[in-house]
Amino acid sequence: MTAGRLGRCLASGTCPAIFESNSENEYWVKGDSLLHTDTLGNDLPDPANVRFYLFSSLPHANASGTGICQQPRNPLVPNSGLRALLVDLDQWVTAGTEPPASRVPRRGDGTLVPALPRIGVGFPTIPGVTYNGRTSTGDLFDFGSTFVQGILTTLPPLLLGSPYPVFVPTTDADGNDVAGIRLPDIAVPLATYSGWNVRAASFAGDDLCDASGQKIDFAQTKAERLAAGDPRLSIEERYRNHGTYVSRVARAANRLHQDRLLLDEDVERYVDAAAESSIGK
Questions:
Q1: What phi and psi, each to the nearest 5 degrees, are found at residue 150?
Q2: Which pLDDT score is estimated for 250?
Q3: Is the residue at 157 inside a domain?
Q4: Is position 55 within any domain?
Q5: Number of structural domains, the chain?
Q6: Is the residue at 80 inside a domain?
Q7: Which helix (H) or strand (E) holds 158?
Q8: Is the predicted pLDDT of residue 147 greater than 50, yes or no?
Q9: Residue 39 has pLDDT above 90, yes or no
């Protein structure tokens, strides 16, 4: 590459402050790791005027039901985190207040890895859930021109060997992303949430299910999960009572607030929703 969209502002020192935020879906379906790794798969330093954020385990487009996918789709949205980032961006531009550091998976700390083998990602073996490590590729093309008998001729793009390497976030034992902005639904989960899903058999089975993620509920009891062969702890094993669940949600929300990644009113919304829930009762 010999030029870029920000070439002129870099030369004049007038580039804007930029926040780049994405869901996990972008890593699986859109090669998002290429935003902060080079073409050999090495971490790149953040430009001084840019911050990168992953909304952990979120889809590109939230939905319910299975649709054309194998598993129920992921209903979570990044709205609460985006509201906080908008305030942070405004404060950076208007008052020079340094924004929260980038929160994305990195090759250097082992949180950004190839989608295969599965054990490297850490996604658990959940009964009935397909994991095939399929990702969209970033193909390497030559878009160059050539002179034929003194005339500049544009040739069709030429595919050059292997695609650029793309990587995905690692997960914890529940299958939820380790790195990124872990909203309370991910930090104190009731299910495995992912930014990827695969298609049902009648819709090009096992291919990527486009912008959808998946939600795979935890078993309610230890007996239920053992009977199903599910390695993920059940709800009753995680939260011994309602108060435990509410306090853990409150801690997760307040940690994000301290890091300027959640606003006061959204902390209150998360805690109120947890208090009104039946978890642990």
A1: 80, 5
A2: 98
A3: no
A4: yes
A5: 1
A6: yes
A7: strand 158-159
A8: no
A9: no
